[in-house]
Structure formats: structure tokens, C-alpha cells
Amino acid sequence: MARPYVGAALIAMHPAPSLIVFTTLSGAGFGLMIWLGLAPMDGEIWVAAVFSLIALGLASGGLLASLAHLGRPERAWKALSQWRSSWLSREGILAILTVGLFSLYAGLWVASGRPAPIVGGLASAAAFATVVSTAMIYASLKSIPRWHSPWTPAVFVTSALAGGALLSGQVLAALFLTAGLALIQVAAWRWGDGAFARAGSSRSTATGLAGRGEVRQLEPPHTGSNYLLREMVHVVGRRHSRRLRVIALVLVAGLPLTFGLLFTVGHGLGALLVVSHLTGVVILRWLFFAEAEHVVGLYYGAR
Amino acid sequence: MTSLPERTEKSLGLVIDLDTCVGCHACVVSCKEWNSAAYGAPLGDLDPYGAAPEGAFLNRVHTYEVDPGHQAPRVVHFPRSCLHCADAPCVTVCPTGASWKRAEDGIVLVNEDDCMGCGLCAWACPYGARELDPIENVMKKCTLCVDRIDNPHLPEEDRVPACVRACPAGARHFGDLSDPSSAVSQLSEARGGVALMPEQGTAPVNRYLPPRPKSDQIDVLGPLLTQLEEEPGGFFGWLDRTLERL
Amino acid sequence: MSYAKQHSVQTAPRISDDVRKTTCYMCACRCGIDVHLKNGAVAHIEGNRSHPKNRGVLCAKGSAGVMQHFSPARLRAPLKRVGPRGSGEFEEISWDEALETARSWLAPLRETAPERLAFFTGRDQSQSLTSWWAQQFGTPNYAAHGGFCSVNMAAGGIYTLGGAFWEFGAPDWERTELFLLFGTAEDHDSNPIKMGLGRLKARGAKVIAINPIRTGYNAVADEWVGITPGTDGLFILALVHELLRAGRVDLDYLCRWTNAPVLLDADGLFARDGDGKELVRDRESGAVVPFDTPGIKPALHGTVDGLTPVFEGLAQRYLAPEHSPDAVAEPCGVPAETIRRIAAELAQAAFEKSFEVKTPWTDFRGERHESFPGRPVAMHAMRGISAHSNGFQTTRALHVLQLLLGTVEAPGGFRFKPPYPKPVSAHPKPHAKVTPGKPLDGPHLGYPRGPEDLLLREDGSAARIDKAYSWDAPLAAHGMMHMVISNAHAGDPYPIDTLFLYMANMAWNSSMGTARVIEMLTDTDADGSYKIPRIIYADAYSSEMVAFADLVFPDTTYLERHDCISLLDRPISEPDLAADAIRWPVVEPDRNVRGFQSALLDLGARLGLPGMTAEDGSPLYSDYADYITRHLRRADVGPLAGFRGDGTADGRGAPNPDQIERYKANGGFWTAEVPADGLYFKQANASYQAWAAEMGFYVSDAPEPYLFQLYAEPLRKFQRAAEGLGHNQPPDHLRARVRETMDPLPVWYPPFEETAIDLDAYPLHAITQRPAAMYHAWGSQNAWLRQIHGENPLYIPTQLWTDLGFERGDWAWVISPHGRIKVPAAPMGALNGKTVWTWNAIGKRSGAWALDPEAPEARRGFLLNHIIHELLPAKGDGHRWANSDPVTGQAAWYDLRVRIERAERAGPQSLPDTGHQQSPVPSAPSRHTFGERSE
Ligand SMILES: Nc1nc2c(c(=O)[nH]1)N[C@H]1C(S)=C(S)[C@@H](COP(=O)(O)OP(=O)(O)OC[C@H]3O[C@@H](n4cnc5c(=O)[nH]c(N)nc54)[C@H](O)[C@@H]3O)O[C@H]1N2
Ligand SMILES: Nc1nc2c(c(=O)[nH]1)N[C@H]1C(S)=C(S)[C@@H](COP(=O)(O)OP(=O)(O)OC[C@H]3O[C@@H](n4cnc5c(=O)[nH]c(N)nc54)[C@H](O)[C@@H]3O)O[C@H]1N2
Ligand code: SF4
Ligand code: SF4
Ligand code: SF4
Ligand code: SF4
Ligand code: SF4
Ligand SMILES: [Mo]
Description:
The complex is a heterotrimer of chains A (303), B (246) and C (935).
Chain A lengths: L9 E3 L4 H22 L6 H24 L18 H26 L4 H23 L11 H17 L3 H23 L1 H5 L3 H5 L6 E6 L7 H6 L1 E3 L1 H25 L4 H24 L13
Antiparallel strand pairs in A: 1-3
Helix pairs in contact in A: 1-2, 1-4, 1-5, 1-11, 2-3, 3-4, 4-5, 5-6, 5-11, 6-10, 10-11
Chain B lengths: L11 E6 L8 H12 L6 E3 L7 E2 L4 E8 L6 E7 L8 H4 L6 E3 L6 E3 L9 H5 L5 E3 L6 E3 L4 H4 L12 H5 L5 E5 L6 H9 L15 E3 L24 H12 L1
Parallel strand pairs in B: 1-11
Antiparallel strand pairs in B: 1-10, 2-3, 4-5, 6-7, 8-9
Chain C lengths: L17 E6 L8 E7 L2 E7 L12 H4 L1 H5 L9 E3 L8 E3 L2 H18 L4 E4 L6 H11 L4 E2 L2 H4 L1 H11 L7 E3 L6 E5 L7 H14 L2 E5 L5 H5 L2 E3 L6 H14 L5 H7 L5 E2 L14 E3 L6 E3 L17 E2 H10 L5 H8 L3 H17 L2 E3 L3 E2 L5 E2 L2 E3 L2 E5 L1 H4 L4 H14 L9 E3 L64 H10 L7 E5 L11 H9 L11 E6 L11 E4 L8 E3 L11 E7 L12 H11 L17 H7 L28 H7 L3 E5 L12 H10 L17 H10 L9 H10 L10 H5 L7 E6 L15 H4 L5 E4 H6 L7 E6 L2 E10 L6 E5 L16 H4 L37 E7 L23 E3 L6
Parallel strand pairs in C: 6-7, 6-22, 9-10, 9-20, 10-11, 22-23, 23-24, 28-32, 29-31
Antiparallel strand pairs in C: 1-2, 2-3, 4-5, 4-24, 8-21, 12-15, 13-14, 16-19, 17-18, 25-26, 26-27, 28-33, 30-31, 30-33
Helix pairs in contact in C: 3-18, 4-18, 6-15, 9-12, 9-13, 9-15, 12-13, 22-23
Bound molecules: ligand MGD (2 copies), iron/sulfur cluster (5 copies) and molybdenum atom (MO).
């Protein structure tokens, strides 16, 4: 049966792969830039080059993935115009600025063999701002109560910092940050699980039929599907998402912490932990979308 | 561009009467039809004759049951389209400047040539009023028939939205809701017009007139007939007396 | 003021370069439309603001007309079947071959046994042509779709009021204070009813909806009476009981305009004078005088010389306790207090809110009145009343209720649309006398006055293949199209050779027991030849029925042909005006298709049918447009009433070669206003009657005033025959039934199917409703409409849903005494607790309508029709009665009883699966945008 007669499942945002990849990769990339800009690693210059390239690769890979989400990617350049009001526009500008500054920084570093701290600081700051603005794209949406909170930037920023720390081999910081991420994420979930109810939107307020009894969908407007249903009225089993939360936490923080505390982290193990962490982040991002209930679901009988 | 105008000169919008709407979908289809012939890209349909047809519509009519618990539920037909919000979040999130709100009358529009189809504005809209066209891949939304209401090629009386013109029950009304003396403002005032999801802070312009209480839901003491049995001669006695008076 | 930095918008696009005004045919409402063309192609359709039907509005179907016009399911050329029936394997042929084939099949039949052609025409808007064609051919076997549609409403109306609800009258929307709507989901008057309800709402008048289901019109009603199906007769007669008991009836109205005072003899027949005029007794003089004697004061009760006024028996019958609200509350599922209150509200609105329209007028007795008394109570009813086997009598009961309140033809009440009202006496009787090689002896369909008018053969068997006007269905005024295939298959009452169908999807949604009908259409004799030897079908689209035809005439779309919406047929008038209209080719077809009526005239000429063939054997009419312009039914009366003669004559006049052009220039329609002093009480109004006669509405060409018939004497004549009087009597197995059901005063009896089955095994009523945004089968080819209704669940009362353990997403088995279907299910609270329902005609056969075989319509859509039977379960005596109203033969769709069970979820697909048909048209595109970017 099509959507009209869905049962007691969670009706949430569609976890589009392009967006999950985008936020995961770019988060890690910009997180790495933050660390490289502030605390450049010592050692041979090719290491700096490789890590800089990884950072740039992740960030631009993420940005490219985000283009896949666009209906008209050829017009993406127009997105740079509305920085006064739009976080998406700001993010675009900041991302380009960051990539530029960081490339300059990395270029100078490789060319001169020494990192330039002022440029690095600027690049770090820009990368940080980029991550914040990515988060703010989501956090600014009142229509998705779970996202509409400081927890969203908190999670995005910690996750970028943690990923960056892991990638750049800042083991101690990484341990603190992954632990922090886990805690913040758990807190964000606790807050977020009640966000929809607290936001005060219901089928009654959505239809203006408050005070007249329980409002139930009898018939959907169309038996066919539509853009809204696909994009924002995605059906997820509740139990499914609970299980994924645990798995995500284990991958994002559990494994890195356990192994990081028990063993000395060399390149091999480090790489594994990065993979574990980033896989965890992918799941977190999947959950970020798949658990985010949009108030428009109310019109289609959600809640 | 995507900054909202400080204020608009008018606030054009719709007043939709839920007490009169019979859920016939005339507004849905006439809207689709007009917007396939006029403003911007035509509204497309994917797989129109297939297993999963899916097209863009700017207006959709839901059907709800409202169950007071102790009485029979009632059925409410509910047309849903853009409310042309004063604080339109769909406009401010738009990165390209494609989404905008007209300063002269408050109509919220998408300039399709600028739209990159990111969908963020649709996410920002609490009301599900925006749909990405499945073929043109640009954002579509109710234009309040901006291409009709001032269109000199149309006769004066036709310069109203297509859905308003088509609605057989007369459940849709169009006008300036910022002018308290306009017919729509007065209608909304008289019937207790409501804004949808005020808690979202979007300050919608459109108003919905709630269904009036139904007599099977209010405890009115209905009129009662006095029976004739008590009258002399019963029914036919009454008949004779009454006929005499005719 | 300028707005810097804003985008510029094209606020003044030109969407068309030409506008052509014609008539919509996305349904039978027939609204006026403005078709906008751009570069010669249809671009946009909107309502015609000056049209009397819709005054500019347009429904969902009408707005989707562009998609119908460009439908991929349109047939492209005449088709000859090459595979087995039902396979959908065809070869495209030329028109000449198609028409010659048809001629070669039919010509021998006409010469030997014209009745072997059965010509049935579905929802035909050219019945005055098609019936005339069949008459000229000489077959008695002709009818359109009314028998399975709403003939109970039509016949109940004609025999009582001289006109019916259906689309032949309308509430006085501007003045009524209380409106009762019975059993209506959409109606043929789709837009006018919506417009009217909107007016009532805007004025704050009260609407009470009597319907088991609360959706659509019933959802906006101020009060919902969720009645149990089939019990409206009880409910209505309880209202009558209450009003009588309280003396809240309009005695003056009853005396003047109804047969309440007419005297009945001991036999229950009217006392008449030598001229055949009904007699009444004057209270003043005590004299028995004709009803139309001026200045009399007729008595309403008392027996003198064995003669008793109708009203006395009526009052006695309905005052009896069995009609009290308390007695009917339980079966109706409506509390007695509610019935009492509604009765009181009726009285209050009718008598306390009455008013006068101060126009002097004169009645048929010659009495002058200073005003028209208003009775602001209006009612309307449709198939919820009529699609039951007790529907004829329930319709009559409702009309009697209206008459007691004095609201029919009163301002504020229910008003007829010209050429109605029209008494039975102004209608023809039915005809079926066959003479090989000659036309039939008269029109097929009409209104019998008594048993002598039945259409029976020497041996007493039915003269018509559908058995209309036999004792099975004596007043089958619209024929019984739903019986044709099964009777033809059984060769009962006789075999036929060619079944010729037009615009009726009889292999699918218009048949009872669809899967069985498919078997009958494909069933063969021992020698392998089909039981129904030949099937010719005219359709415009690739429907299910097309696949079962041997020869297919492809019609045009409604924007590509001439049509005539004639006063001789079903009118589009409004109470204040007479109106008719045309369709014309606003664009020319781009395929090898022809308007069916033109093709039919061509075939008629090839067969040499009188009236269609000139002396030299050449066709008399070049096409339908030519026929519309030149054909005459009587002197100076033709298909179109407007712009006759020199272009100024209304109603009558010589043919005007310029007539169609004049219609086009006038917006596609013509109207003539009823004179101001003729607007109300039309049946008795001298001014209206004179105007109507002058316009040519009556075959007699003279005024036809009459009394409303509380007591229907023709019914009494049939009843007497059943009592053993007269020489034309029903067969014994039908006697009791005829006696009970053909009561001259309204009665209620339980729907037949209920009495023939175990109600514990089938405790639920199962009914369908029309969705506003879909028209039967033919809406599903429409890319826009099918997104709204692409599948249909069975709605189950919430309580039952919970009791049976249903969950969202579940499927149900729906089981009737005749079969079982598996369907998607959904709960609903605003529903009579003993009723389940679904939308009508959404389910489709895989491969039809140019849809993907996996289309939701074919996989999750379903028809209730599979579990409805055209016959009732066998009686003790072995006879299987038709599942129809015993008076009119109306198909009793809504008598269906079922039980439901939760179905296994695996492989969700609705059952039965009727197989796949190949598409005679190419498959449809997978992406679609209609229109182009406007600059
Ligand atoms: N279960 C159930 N069954 C019902 C009913 C119900 O309430 N419940 N209602 C009954 C009633 S009242 C009716 S009227 C019938 C209706 O049932 P049908 O008369 O079968 O109605 P449709 O399916 O609309 O159309 C019949 C055919 O007309 C064709 N057609 C459409 N336009 C044109 C045209 O311009 N020219 C030609 N030549 N053909 C055209 C269509 O393609 C279709 O094949 O259904 C009956 N069946
Ligand atoms: N949009 C649209 N319009 C149409 C059509 C269409 O297919 N689509 N079809 C046209 C045709 S052919 C016809 S005949 C007309 C029919 O017009 P309607 O008579 O309005 O059509 P139905 O859908 O049969 O509606 C019957 C109604 O009666 C109710 N009902 C059933 N049984 C009972 C009962 O025992 N008592 C009471 N009080 N109510 C009952 C049902 O719930 C339903 O609401 O519509 C015409 N108009
Ligand atoms: S209804 Fe939605 S799309 Fe329309 S203005 Fe408000 S937020 Fe924007
Ligand atoms: S989809 Fe188009 S209009 Fe909407 S936010 Fe993106 S660019 Fe702006
Ligand atoms: S105002 Fe115009 S665009 Fe908006 S819903 Fe109505 S018809 Fe559609
Ligand atoms: S056209 Fe009018 S009555 Fe029909 S659904 Fe739309 S608002 Fe309601
Ligand atoms: S009611 Fe709708 S489909 Fe029917 S004729 Fe009128 S506009 Fe056309
Ligand atoms: Mo019908």
C-alpha cells in the first residue's frame, strides 16, 4: 500500500546518500584543516603535503557530493549570492574561502617547509566557521524541531574536530573529542527526542482544527507519491533507528576510545580507528536525517 | 534578494472556508492546469501512465476525520497550498536568491532561472507548500496566480487565481488581508479565520475558516411538534376545522 | 512606487491566441467551457461564465480535460479483432471496411429478425438520435444506461410529480431555508449542486445529509444522519407520520395541486367523468365534480357513495403506529428523537419561514392568485435512494413528503427545469412491435399506464431481450442494460445475433459480476462459436470493453466532434430557463476516428434506413452536424430549439442552415427564459403551460396541466392484476411480489437480497460512492486524475476494524453470497456502523487504458462489482429473481450484503485477477509535461 495507510512508524526526512556523504566527508575534511592549521604536524614535508591533500580531498569531495543533491547543479555558483540571509550561501562562500586559505597555507608550507601560523590560524578559523554554517543550515530550520537547536552545531563541530583530530593523529585530543562527541550526541538525542512535542506543532495546529477532537487522516490528497513524501515523509521503523544509535556510538567513540586507551596508536591502527569513526559518523548522519521529523508529516497523518 | 521586505504594501492571500469545501479537487486540478500553461516551467509528471505516477502539484486537498470522542467524527476536507507568509523562512534560506517575496503585495515566488533545485526552501516551509518539479528540477510553488491577477489579457472578472475561479462551492476567497476593510478580512474576522501552525512563527497571510459547529454536535433543543391526538375528533376533526378556515 | 532589486515577473502572459466555447464531456453534467487554443492546439480549459449550468466554475474532471484530450489511450482507427475475445489483439482497418462489415452483419437481421440486434448505448447524450435509429432499424432492443443508473429516481418522479430529481429539477438555492440531501455523493448535476451548497452555506441555511457515509457534500452538511442502507423509506414515512400527527401539512396545497381530494372507488381506481377527468367532492355543495372545476372546495375525507378521497387512506396509513419514529429507529439506525426533531424542523421551515413572491398569476382552473406562496424546504436525492430494490417506492415516499409540505414547485422548494414537469400522459407508452424490414411501431421507452402497456409476446414472455416492461419490471422506463449480456448469453427470452454497444464499459464497471460477465462474453457453443455471436462497440478509448468486441468504431474526443444536448433528450435547463447546447470540433482529430453519431448515420444510410436515406439511396445527412441542423421530429421541432427559422425563432421554427454557427457565436448554448408569471407551480400555471406548449415541449402541442400524484393509479392497475383482476395478469410466482411492491401509496419493504440470505453470515452493507475527481472507468487514463485516485481501499467502520483486529496496511477479504474479493482496507469513523464502502470504478484490468500492467489501478484498485450478482440467490420455488427493483428494473447495486475477514498480507494484489489484455494503442510515455514555458 502506498503512504496513505502507514502505521506507527517514524515519519522523517529522507536520508539522501548525497547529503550523508557530503556532511560526513566535508566535516572530516574541514576538521582536519582545523587541526592542520592550528597544530601542524612535524616531520617530513611530504607528510604535510599528503595530509593537506587529504583534507582538501575530503572537503571538496563532500562539496561535490552535495552538488549531486541539486536539481540544477550548473547553477550552484548562484548560491554564493545570499550570504546576508542564507546559511547555505554562507557555507558555500566560507567553504571556498577555507579551501582557498588552506591551499595557500598548505602551499606555503610545502614550498617553504614551514607552516605559516597566521595563515594557518585563518584557515582553521574559516574551516571552523564552515562547519558551523553547515550545521546552521539545519539548525535554522524551525520546521524540523529536532534540528532546530544548539545541539546541532555542537554535534557537527565536535564531530568535525574529533574526525580531524583522529585523522591528524592528535590521539589524546581525539580521545577526548570522541568521548565528548558521544556525550554530546547522547544529550542531543535526549533533547531531540522530545523536541517535536515541545515545538507545539500537532495535527490540530497544522490544520487549524484545534479543540475539535482528534484529527486523523482519512484520505491522502493523492494516492500517488510526490516530492514532499519522498523528501520529508520518509518512513523508518522506530526500533531500527534505536539499534543504529548504539552501533553508531560504538563505532564513533567506543572503538576509538577502547583501542586508543589500551594500545599505542600507530598508523595502521590509526587508520582503522579513522574508518571506524567515520563509519560511525555516516550512521549518525543517516540517523540525523532519518530521525528528523518535519512538521509537514503532520498533514500526512504523522504523530 | 532573499532578505524579506521590511513590510509589504498589501498582503494578498487566500481565505479557505473549511465549512464549505466539499473536497472536490477542482482547485487542485485547475491550479495544475493553469500552471502548466502560464508562469515558469510547466508542472511535470513522472511515470504519468505507469506504476508510480508522481507529479508536481501546487495545491493538494487532504481529507481528515475529526473525532471528538463522544460523538460521530466529522470529515473535513483541507486544501493546502502556500500561505504567503510574512516571515517566510523559505525565502531567507534560499542561497541563490531565487526565492523572494514581492514588496508590493507579499506574494512569495521563485525565480526559476536562478533556482539550483537544492530543496532547502521546501525543507524550511512547515506547510509542504513547495515541490521540486520532477522534470524541470526547479522549485515550484503557488504563485497566487501572479500571472492572472494583474493580467490585462484577461477580462477584469477573471483576474483572480485559477483555483478561486474554478472552485464550484465558492469555498476559496482571494484578496488583501492587510486591509481590514477588504471582503476577505471581513469574512475572516466574522468567521474566526485561523492561521496554520502559528507556533512556527511564519506569520501566514492565508486564513482558514473553521467548520461551524454542526447541529448533531451541539445540544440544541430542537423544535417539537404538538400532536393532534389531544384535539377533539383527532386528526380528521382537526382536518375539518382547518379546511373550514381555508 | 518602484521596488528596486526585485526580480521581474511576467505577470501578463498570453496563454492563448483563440478561445472556443463548447460543452464539457468529462461527465454528464455538461457545463460550458472556454477552450483556449495556442498555435491551433488545445492549451487550457476553463468554465464559461455565462453558461447556465456552471456559471464559470469547473470541476476537477473538467479542468483535467486537456489530459483526456491528449490521452495515450485514444483509439486511432477502426479495429477488427484478430485474437480471441478479451485478448486485445486487433488489426486497424479502414472506416469503409468497418462500416461495410457492420452493414453486412445487420442488413440480413433487419430483413428477417430485427430483434436479433440489441443496441444499447450507455451514458449516451444523443439518445434522441440513437433511439430513433434503433426504431428505424426495427429492433425493440434498445435502451441507454438509465436502468442500471437511476431509473427509480426518474420513474418515481415522473409517476408522482411529472419530473424527477436526477438532473430534471433543482432546489431553490437562493431561498430555501432547510435542505435535505438523501443518498447523494456527486450527482449528475455535479457543479450545480456544489454551487448550490456553497450558496446555502454562505446564506447560513441548514443542510441535513441523510447518508451512511459522511464525505463530500455530506461532510459539509450541518447535520449528518448516518442511516443504515435501504431504510430511507422507513425514515421518510416516519417524518410523514410525525407531520400528519401534528397536522403540519399544507392542506391548501394538497387540495389545489395534488390528487389528495380525488375520489377512489372501491377498486382503488379514480372516479372519473365522461371525459376521463378525475372527480372530487365539493365540501360546500357536496357535489362530485371534475378536479379542475373553478372555485370548488374539495373534501379530503369521508366516504360517500363508496367514493373516498385519496387523502383519507393516505392519512390512515401513515398515522398507524408502525410508521412512528419509535418503530423505525432501530432498523434505520437513527434515534427516534432525531426523527421527531427533523420533522419539527421541516414544519418550522416550511410554515414559519414561509414568504410570498408577489407576482400575480393564473392557474389552470382560471383562478387568479396575487402571489406565489413560498415553502423554503428543499430536498434532493440520488442513487443512495434509487439503487436499492425498494428505491422506486422510497422515491415516491420522498415526493409525498415534499407534497405534504407544499414545497414542490413552490418558491424556496424544489423546482423543475423545462421541459419538465410533464405528466405521465404527456410521455409516450413503450413499443416493441417488430415487423421485419420495417421500423418499430413507436418509441421503445415510455411510461406504461397499466398492464395493457406491458411488452409481452403471445406466450407471455418478454418482448425485449432485457425483459423490460415484462412482469419482472413493469415500469422499466429506461430499459435494463445490466441484464442484456446475461440474457443474451442464456438466450432468454430469445437468442440474439449482434450486440451493438456504445459508450458503456459493460465488460467491466457497469456490469454486475464482472468476472462472470467476461466469461459470458467469451463463452462458446460446442462448435466453438461465441454464444453472443457478434459484438460491435463504439468507444473513444482503450477500455476493457474494447478488448471484448469483434469490431470497434473509434470515436473522437469530446473536443473533436459535433454533439447536441437536446431538449428532446436530457435537458441542461435551469428552473428559470430552458436551455440546450452543442459541442463542436474546436480542434480536428489527428487520427482516423469519427464522431460516433456521424458513423451511425452513415451506417443507417448504408442499411437504407428510412429517414436516413434519400430516395436515390444516398445518405440524407452528410454527418451529425447536418442532421442536427436539418432533422425534424415534428413540424418545426428539431434537435436544437434555439435560433430556428430565420435565426430569431425559439423552440419551434424551420431548420436554419446557420443554426450551429449561431450557437457557436452564442457561447455554444441557447437559453429562453420562463415568463415571470410562469416561474412557479409550472404544472398548474397557465402562463407556463402556454409558453411550454408554444416552445414545443409537448407532443400534443397543447398545454398539459395536471395534479401531482400522491396516489399513483397506474400502480394500482398492476396491483389489481396481481389480485386476479383483468385479463393481463402476472405469472403466479410474481403475484405476491407485484401486489406488495406496486402499491399505489408509498410502502417500504426490505431490500430483496436481505430477505434471500442468512443475515448473520452477511451482516454488513457494502456500497460505493463516486469520487468527485474521477468519472467511472474513463478517468483513469487521465494523468492528473489518476494521481488523485489511483487505488481504492475498502473503508471499514472503526469499531469493526478494531474488533476484527485490523491494522493499518492490512488487506481484507470481502465475501458476499456471490463471491469473494481481496482488497486493501482502511478504517473510518464517520460511517454507519453496519456499512463498508469504497470509491467506484477505480480498479482496472491489466493492459487497459494504455496504463502500465503494474499500474496501481490494476494491482491495488478493485471493483465491488465482482461480488454483486444480477440475480438474487435462488428462491424456494427455483426462480431466481433479478437483483433489481421489482417495479422499474433498476439495478440494486446497493442492496449488496457482505462479511469481511482479515486477509493474509503476502503478495498484496487485489483479487480476482481478470487477466491481461493487450493494448490496441501504443504504450504511454514515461515522462510528461503538458504545456510549454510561457515567455
Ligand atoms: N459497483 C458499482 N457499479 C456501478 C455503479 C455503482 O454505483 N457501483 N454505478 C453504475 C452506474 S449509475 C453507471 S452510469 C455505470 C457507468 O459505467 P459505464 O457506463 O461503463 O461508464 P464509464 O466507465 O464511464 O464509460 C463507459 C465507456 O465510455 C467510453 N467513452 C468515454 N468517452 C467517450 C466518448 O466520447 N465516445 C465514446 N464512444 N465512448 C466514450 C469510455 O472509454 C468507457 O469505455 O456504472 C454502474 N456501475
Ligand atoms: N465525479 C463524478 N460524478 C459523477 C459520476 C462519477 O463517476 N464521478 N457518475 C455520474 C453518474 S453515472 C451518476 S448515476 C451520478 C450518481 O450520483 P450519486 O447518486 O450522487 O452517486 P453515488 O456515488 O452512487 O452516490 C450514492 C450515495 O448514496 C449513499 N447511499 C448508499 N446507500 C444509501 C441508502 O440506503 N440511503 C442513503 N440515504 N444513502 C445511501 C452513498 O453513501 C453515496 O453517498 O453521478 C454522476 N456524477
Ligand atoms: S507557506 Fe511555505 S512556501 Fe509559502 S511562504 Fe510560507 S513558508 Fe514559504
Ligand atoms: S530550491 Fe531553488 S528556490 Fe529553493 S532554496 Fe534552493 S535555490 Fe532557492
Ligand atoms: S493561487 Fe494559483 S497557484 Fe496558488 S493554489 Fe491557487 S491556482 Fe494554484
Ligand atoms: S475547489 Fe473548492 S470545494 Fe473543491 S476542494 Fe477546492 S476549495 Fe474545496
Ligand atoms: S461537472 Fe465537471 S466534468 Fe462534468 S461537465 Fe461540468 S465541468 Fe465537465
Ligand atoms: Mo449513472
